[in-house]
Amino acid sequence: MTSGISRRARVLAAAVGTGVLVPLVAAATPASAAPPAVTCTSARAGLAAKLQKDITAALATRQGTVAVGLYDRGTDTTCTLRATSAYDSASVVKVTVLATLLWDAKKSGRYLTDRENTLARAMITKSDNAATSTLWKQLGMTKIKGFLAAAGMTQTKPGADGYWGLTQITVTDEQKLLKLLTAKNAVLSDNSRSYILKLMGQVVSSQRWGTPYGVPSGVTVAVKNGWLQRSSNGWRVHSVGAFKGGGHDYVMTVLSHGNSTMNYGIATIQAVAKVIHKDLAAS
């Protein structure tokens, strides 16, 4: 009888112990669910810590989910936040469409036709959707996936049924593409790279927001932005850019969704871009 009581007592004690532990475990959950941190590395002393601090501060009061990528060749600096999180591409995929067109033309040993040049210019400089749909259909899924494989953009999933704006993209892959555009490589010819950057440098003024914000004078700018509202996750607002000058040669990607308005998303991207340009210029 005594052993039965002690056994029950032990069971009860274990149960009480469990009960005591439960609130402690629950209290610890928010810490494990904390948002990912900005991580930076750099060959330039003090730059990584400065960028990490300033990008984090720029996002501290912003709503929505933001992903960031930065790479500067001059100082071998890299910053990332949510580098592998997938976002609906909206219009930033148009750079991939043009790169695919040029990659395929190079493989075929041909130049773009006048019609393709006209469509490409409208697609990049004015973000023309009809021109994009025409080129997307012309290329087809096999060629688009072929380019993504050649570029090592393994995280990018093309939108189905002609919905190019719903292509899934990540900071990692967008940064890979921007690096291809800004340095010699076997995937895109030098002429193709300069052509894409030239068009990204001629984007109409009303669409030159985002990553170029706060860029120092004398630094060249190539940009492509995207924006799309959906019933879930509000506005997607993205900006990819390439910048060269002042001793720096850098590419930047900022992707976001969960924005209440398009302008709110733009302001978030520009808060990040401003501190990045400032910190690099000062380094």
UniProtKB/TrEMBL annotation:
Gene Ontology molecular functions: hydrolase activity
Keyword Iron part of the UniProt annotation: no
Signal peptide: 1-33
Domain spans labelled Beta-lactamase class A catalytic: 118-255
The keyword Cell wall biogenesis/degradation belongs to this UniProt entry's keyword annotation: no
Keywords: Hydrolase, Signal
SUPFAM superfamilies: beta-lactamase/transpeptidase-like
Chain coiled-coil ranges: none
Origin: domain of life: Bacteria
Pfam families reported in the protein's UniProt record: Beta-lactamase2
Protein's UniProt name: Beta-lactamase
Species annotation: Streptomyces indiaensis
Lineage: Bacteria, Bacillati, Actinomycetota, Actinomycetes, Kitasatosporales
